[in-house]
Amino acid sequence: MAGDIVILTGAGISAESGLGTFRDAGGIWARYPLEDVATPEGFARDPALVHDFYNARRRQARAASPNPAHAALARLEASWPGRVLIVTQNIDSLHERAGTRAVRHMHGRIDRARCAGCGHRWDAPDEMHPHDACPACTAPRTRPDVVWFGEMPEHMDEIWDRLRAAALFVSIGTSGNVYPAAAFVQDAARAGAYTLELNLDPSAGAADFDETRHGPAGRIVPAWVDEMLART
Ligand code: APR
Fold this sequence. Notes:
Elements: E1 5-9, H1 28-31, H2 34-37, H3 40-45, H4 47-63, H5 68-79, E2 84-88, H6 94-97, E3 103-105, E4 108-115, E5 121-123, E6 142-146, H7 156-165, E7 168-172, H8 184-190, E8 194-199, E9 211-214, H9 217-230
Parallel strand pairs: 1-2, 1-7, 2-3, 7-8, 8-9
Antiparallel strand pairs: 4-5, 4-6
Helix pairs in contact: 5-9, 7-8
Protein backbone atom coordinates (compact mmCIF):
# COMPACT_ATOMS: atom_id res chain seq x y z
CA MET A 1 0.00 0.00 0.00
CA ALA A 2 1.15 3.56 -0.72
CA GLY A 3 -0.39 7.01 -1.06
CA ASP A 4 -1.19 9.93 1.18
CA ILE A 5 -2.28 9.48 4.78
CA VAL A 6 -4.27 11.97 6.86
CA ILE A 7 -4.38 11.27 10.59
CA LEU A 8 -6.82 13.07 12.89
CA THR A 9 -5.86 13.03 16.57
CA GLY A 10 -7.80 14.02 19.68
CA ALA A 11 -7.35 14.16 23.43
CA GLY A 12 -7.11 10.34 23.72
CA ILE A 13 -3.65 10.30 22.11
CA SER A 14 -2.31 12.52 24.92
CA ALA A 15 -4.15 10.72 27.73
CA GLU A 16 -1.20 8.41 28.47
CA SER A 17 1.02 11.51 28.69
CA GLY A 18 -1.14 12.55 31.66
CA LEU A 19 -3.25 15.20 29.91
CA GLY A 20 -6.98 14.93 30.62
CA THR A 21 -9.59 14.15 27.97
CA PHE A 22 -12.82 16.17 27.72
CA ARG A 23 -15.78 13.81 27.68
CA ASP A 24 -14.58 10.69 29.53
CA ALA A 25 -15.83 10.22 33.13
CA GLY A 26 -14.17 12.93 35.24
CA GLY A 27 -13.04 14.68 32.04
CA ILE A 28 -12.35 18.40 31.68
CA TRP A 29 -15.94 19.33 30.68
CA ALA A 30 -17.30 17.52 33.76
CA ARG A 31 -15.15 19.80 35.96
CA TYR A 32 -15.39 23.15 34.12
CA PRO A 33 -18.51 24.42 32.30
CA LEU A 34 -17.34 24.77 28.72
CA GLU A 35 -19.63 27.81 28.22
CA ASP A 36 -17.55 29.62 30.86
CA VAL A 37 -14.01 28.72 29.78
CA ALA A 38 -14.16 27.84 26.07
CA THR A 39 -16.41 30.39 24.36
CA PRO A 40 -15.85 34.03 23.28
CA GLU A 41 -18.85 34.97 25.49
CA GLY A 42 -17.25 33.32 28.55
CA PHE A 43 -14.00 35.21 27.89
CA ALA A 44 -15.87 38.52 27.58
CA ARG A 45 -17.68 37.83 30.88
CA ASP A 46 -14.69 36.71 32.97
CA PRO A 47 -11.29 36.87 31.24
CA ALA A 48 -9.42 36.14 34.51
CA LEU A 49 -11.25 32.81 34.92
CA VAL A 50 -10.49 31.84 31.31
CA HIS A 51 -6.81 32.80 31.62
CA ASP A 52 -6.55 30.79 34.89
CA PHE A 53 -8.02 27.75 33.13
CA TYR A 54 -5.58 27.96 30.19
CA ASN A 55 -2.60 28.89 32.42
CA ALA A 56 -3.18 25.61 34.28
CA ARG A 57 -3.51 23.66 31.04
CA ARG A 58 -0.33 25.32 29.68
CA ARG A 59 1.57 24.28 32.82
CA GLN A 60 0.34 20.68 32.45
CA ALA A 61 1.13 20.56 28.73
CA ARG A 62 4.66 21.90 29.27
CA ALA A 63 5.31 19.31 31.99
CA ALA A 64 4.01 16.40 29.85
CA SER A 65 6.13 14.24 27.52
CA PRO A 66 5.18 12.56 24.26
CA ASN A 67 4.13 8.91 24.66
CA PRO A 68 4.77 5.90 22.37
CA ALA A 69 1.75 6.81 20.19
CA HIS A 70 3.17 10.27 19.36
CA ALA A 71 6.60 8.69 18.74
CA ALA A 72 5.13 6.05 16.42
CA LEU A 73 3.42 8.70 14.26
CA ALA A 74 6.74 10.58 13.96
CA ARG A 75 8.33 7.31 12.80
CA LEU A 76 5.56 6.83 10.22
CA GLU A 77 6.05 10.35 8.86
CA ALA A 78 9.82 9.84 8.58
CA SER A 79 9.60 6.53 6.67
CA TRP A 80 6.30 6.42 4.75
CA PRO A 81 6.80 6.85 0.98
CA GLY A 82 3.74 9.15 0.59
CA ARG A 83 2.73 12.32 2.39
CA VAL A 84 1.57 12.07 6.01
CA LEU A 85 -0.41 14.95 7.56
CA ILE A 86 -1.34 15.00 11.25
CA VAL A 87 -4.45 17.08 11.87
CA THR A 88 -4.84 17.51 15.60
CA GLN A 89 -7.67 18.87 17.72
CA ASN A 90 -5.19 19.02 20.59
CA ILE A 91 -3.71 22.29 21.78
CA ASP A 92 -0.62 20.59 23.25
CA SER A 93 2.59 20.30 21.18
CA LEU A 94 3.34 16.65 21.88
CA HIS A 95 3.33 15.67 18.17
CA GLU A 96 5.99 18.30 17.41
CA ARG A 97 7.99 17.35 20.50
CA ALA A 98 7.96 13.71 19.31
CA GLY A 99 9.54 14.89 16.04
CA THR A 100 6.57 15.11 13.67
CA ARG A 101 6.92 18.02 11.22
CA ALA A 102 3.62 18.14 9.32
CA VAL A 103 1.11 18.98 12.08
CA ARG A 104 -1.92 21.26 11.72
CA HIS A 105 -3.61 22.43 14.92
CA MET A 106 -7.31 22.90 14.08
CA HIS A 107 -8.06 24.19 17.58
CA GLY A 108 -4.93 26.33 18.02
CA ARG A 109 -2.03 25.93 20.45
CA ILE A 110 -1.81 26.55 24.19
CA ASP A 111 1.85 27.63 23.88
CA ARG A 112 0.90 30.57 21.62
CA ALA A 113 -0.79 33.87 22.38
CA ARG A 114 -2.86 36.06 20.06
CA CYS A 115 -4.05 39.66 20.05
CA ALA A 116 -7.82 39.89 19.65
CA GLY A 117 -7.27 43.42 18.30
CA CYS A 118 -4.63 43.16 15.56
CA GLY A 119 -4.30 39.37 15.18
CA HIS A 120 -0.57 39.30 16.02
CA ARG A 121 0.60 35.91 17.39
CA TRP A 122 3.58 35.12 19.63
CA ASP A 123 4.95 32.48 22.03
CA ALA A 124 2.80 32.48 25.16
CA PRO A 125 4.49 33.20 28.48
CA ASP A 126 3.87 30.69 31.31
CA GLU A 127 1.08 32.87 32.68
CA MET A 128 -1.27 35.15 30.76
CA HIS A 129 -3.49 37.75 32.43
CA PRO A 130 -6.33 40.10 31.41
CA HIS A 131 -4.94 43.46 30.25
CA ASP A 132 -1.56 42.00 29.13
CA ALA A 133 -0.44 44.29 26.30
CA CYS A 134 0.02 42.98 22.74
CA PRO A 135 3.74 43.25 21.86
CA ALA A 136 2.81 44.55 18.37
CA CYS A 137 -0.05 47.05 18.86
CA THR A 138 -0.04 47.41 22.71
CA ALA A 139 -3.81 46.82 22.93
CA PRO A 140 -4.69 45.07 26.23
CA ARG A 141 -6.60 42.37 24.32
CA THR A 142 -4.39 39.29 24.48
CA ARG A 143 -5.92 35.83 24.55
CA PRO A 144 -4.72 32.22 24.28
CA ASP A 145 -4.26 31.26 20.61
CA VAL A 146 -6.91 28.55 20.84
CA VAL A 147 -10.19 28.07 18.96
CA TRP A 148 -13.28 28.31 21.16
CA PHE A 149 -16.75 26.89 20.57
CA GLY A 150 -18.49 29.15 18.05
CA GLU A 151 -15.18 30.10 16.32
CA MET A 152 -13.81 28.81 13.01
CA PRO A 153 -11.28 25.96 13.24
CA GLU A 154 -7.98 26.71 11.51
CA HIS A 155 -6.34 25.33 8.32
CA MET A 156 -9.68 23.99 7.02
CA ASP A 157 -9.07 24.60 3.29
CA GLU A 158 -5.77 22.73 3.38
CA ILE A 159 -7.27 19.94 5.53
CA TRP A 160 -10.19 19.37 3.16
CA ASP A 161 -7.79 19.35 0.16
CA ARG A 162 -5.64 16.74 1.86
CA LEU A 163 -8.68 14.62 2.86
CA ARG A 164 -9.75 14.60 -0.81
CA ALA A 165 -6.28 13.37 -1.84
CA ALA A 166 -5.90 10.75 0.92
CA ALA A 167 -5.64 7.02 0.29
CA LEU A 168 -6.03 6.38 4.02
CA PHE A 169 -7.73 8.36 6.80
CA VAL A 170 -7.02 7.39 10.41
CA SER A 171 -8.77 8.81 13.48
CA ILE A 172 -6.99 8.39 16.82
CA GLY A 173 -8.22 9.19 20.33
CA THR A 174 -11.24 11.32 19.54
CA SER A 175 -14.83 10.78 20.64
CA GLY A 176 -16.24 12.09 17.34
CA ASN A 177 -18.51 14.66 18.96
CA VAL A 178 -17.09 17.92 17.61
CA TYR A 179 -17.56 19.11 14.02
CA PRO A 180 -16.09 19.60 11.48
CA ALA A 181 -13.54 16.94 12.62
CA ALA A 182 -16.30 14.41 13.32
CA ALA A 183 -17.25 14.49 9.61
CA PHE A 184 -13.72 13.92 8.25
CA VAL A 185 -14.34 10.16 8.08
CA GLN A 186 -17.27 10.77 5.71
CA ASP A 187 -15.37 13.43 3.71
CA ALA A 188 -12.42 11.07 3.24
CA ALA A 189 -14.57 8.03 2.43
CA ARG A 190 -16.52 9.99 -0.19
CA ALA A 191 -13.21 10.82 -1.87
CA GLY A 192 -12.23 7.13 -1.91
CA ALA A 193 -10.01 6.76 1.16
CA TYR A 194 -9.90 3.65 3.34
CA THR A 195 -10.85 4.68 6.89
CA LEU A 196 -9.53 3.35 10.20
CA GLU A 197 -10.39 4.24 13.80
CA LEU A 198 -7.87 3.66 16.61
CA ASN A 199 -9.49 4.53 19.93
CA LEU A 200 -9.90 3.26 23.47
CA ASP A 201 -13.54 2.44 22.76
CA PRO A 202 -15.93 2.92 19.83
CA SER A 203 -16.42 6.64 19.06
CA ALA A 204 -19.75 8.25 18.17
CA GLY A 205 -18.92 7.71 14.49
CA ALA A 206 -17.36 4.23 14.73
CA ALA A 207 -19.91 2.71 12.33
CA ASP A 208 -18.67 5.03 9.54
CA PHE A 209 -15.16 3.51 9.47
CA ASP A 210 -14.06 0.62 7.26
CA GLU A 211 -12.05 -0.77 10.18
CA THR A 212 -11.87 -0.09 13.93
CA ARG A 213 -9.30 -1.20 16.50
CA HIS A 214 -9.86 -0.50 20.16
CA GLY A 215 -7.33 -0.20 23.00
CA PRO A 216 -4.98 2.37 24.53
CA ALA A 217 -3.21 4.52 21.94
CA GLY A 218 0.21 3.81 23.48
CA ARG A 219 -0.23 0.16 22.52
CA ILE A 220 -2.37 0.07 19.35
CA VAL A 221 -0.80 3.01 17.48
CA PRO A 222 2.82 1.68 17.56
CA ALA A 223 1.50 -1.77 16.54
CA TRP A 224 -0.39 -0.26 13.57
CA VAL A 225 2.64 1.83 12.49
CA ASP A 226 4.85 -1.29 12.62
CA GLU A 227 2.37 -3.06 10.31
CA MET A 228 2.31 -0.12 7.90
CA LEU A 229 6.09 0.21 7.71
CA ALA A 230 6.50 -3.55 7.23
CA ARG A 231 4.47 -3.18 4.00
CA THR A 232 6.67 -0.48 2.46
N1 APR B 1 -5.98 5.76 24.06
C1 APR B 1 -6.86 5.96 23.03
N2 APR B 1 -8.02 6.62 23.18
C2 APR B 1 -8.32 7.10 24.40
C3 APR B 1 -7.46 6.94 25.50
C4 APR B 1 -6.25 6.23 25.31
N3 APR B 1 -5.36 6.00 26.29
N4 APR B 1 -8.04 7.53 26.59
C5 APR B 1 -9.20 8.04 26.16
N5 APR B 1 -9.39 7.78 24.84
C6 APR B 1 -10.50 8.16 23.96
C7 APR B 1 -11.84 8.19 24.66
O1 APR B 1 -12.43 6.89 24.64
C8 APR B 1 -12.61 9.19 23.81
O2 APR B 1 -13.30 8.54 22.74
O3 APR B 1 -10.27 9.46 23.50
C9 APR B 1 -11.52 10.08 23.23
C10 APR B 1 -11.46 11.48 23.83
O4 APR B 1 -12.63 12.18 23.50
P1 APR B 1 -12.89 13.68 23.97
O5 APR B 1 -12.59 13.81 25.41
O6 APR B 1 -14.25 14.06 23.52
O7 APR B 1 -11.75 14.52 23.18
P2 APR B 1 -11.74 15.00 21.68
O8 APR B 1 -12.51 14.09 20.82
O9 APR B 1 -10.33 15.29 21.34
O10 APR B 1 -12.53 16.38 21.79
C11 APR B 1 -12.64 17.18 20.64
O11 APR B 1 -13.70 18.87 21.90
O12 APR B 1 -14.03 20.24 23.67
C12 APR B 1 -13.41 20.11 22.50
O13 APR B 1 -11.75 21.49 21.76
C13 APR B 1 -11.93 20.31 22.48
O14 APR B 1 -10.39 19.48 20.84
C14 APR B 1 -11.42 19.12 21.73
C15 APR B 1 -12.65 18.62 21.00
